[in-house]
Design a protein that fits this description.
This protein is mainly alpha-helical and about 200 residues long. The protein is built from 10 helices and 6 strands, in the order H-H-H-H-E-H-H-E-E-E-H-H-E-E-H-H. The chain folds into 2 domains: about 90 residues, no CATH class; about 110 residues, no CATH class. Helix 2 packs across helix 4, helix 5 crosses helix 6 and helix 7 packs parallel to helix 10. The longest helix has 20 residues.
Length: about 200
């Protein structure tokens, strides 16, 4: 038991250090609660089963999104990592009204776009309203090409998986120096959104 407690303290200290790096100190408790809410709602979909059963498409996608191949011994760590990523995404996303103001549109227009799947929204466990993850914005406004890329992604893809795609370097998206870019960086630089749409369709 003491060893387990020590490990949990170390994990919490690591979380605090990571949040401090991104100037998010003070969100530890809220992120922990948000992760718990996400597991309450989706644990049956992403946690490994207690009995041997074929994995569903959603389970395989969730595991693959955190770099774990399906199969082998049941390990809850990928599901916990997925829940933590969802919590950070939800806690750092902009409230709908603030996002609408940033884009110079009425909040009702963003709600319409959420239905059209041309902007990504996420809900916090303690809120009924939508929040808009920040990777979709540039200093000038909306990420160029965002709408078409989002429409290419399967409708049931979890927001945390979509966000991970936009913010993870892709080997097929190289700049002039041969460096792999994230889809968000590729689009922000004004490159052709076609290759990003092709990659997005495979999520």
């Amino acid at each position: 038991m003491p060893g387990e407690i020590d490990r949990r303290i170390e994990d919490f200290d690591a979380l605090r250090a990571t949040l401090a790096k991104f100037h998010l100190t003070g969100l530890e408790g809220r992120i922990a609660r948000a992760a718990g809410d996400y597991l309450e709602a989706h644990g049956h979909e992403i946690l490994p089963p207690d009995r041997a059963e074929p994995l569903s498409v959603a389970e395989r996608a969730a595991l693959a999104s955190v770099g774990v191949a399906a199969g082998g011994e049941a390990d809850p760590q990928p599901a916990l990592a997925l829940a933590a990523r969802h919590a950070v995404l939800a806690e750092t996303a902009l409230p709908l009204a603030q996002a609408a103001d940033r884009l110079g549109v009425d909040p009702s227009r963003l709600r319409q776009r959420l239905r059209e799947r041309t902007i990504l929204g996420i809900r916090r466990g303690d809120e009924r309203g939508w929040r808009i993850p920040g990777f979709q914005f540039t200093p000038e406004g909306e990420l160029p090409g965002l709408r078409g890329v989002l429409r290419a992604i399967r409708p049931d893809a979890a927001p945390v998986i979509v966000a991970a795609f936009f913010t993870t370097p892709q080997a097929d998206l190289e700049d002039a120096e041969g460096q792999s870019l994230t889809p968000a960086a590729w689009l922000a630089a004004g490159h052709d959104p076609g290759p990003v749409r092709d990659l997005a369709a495979a999520i």
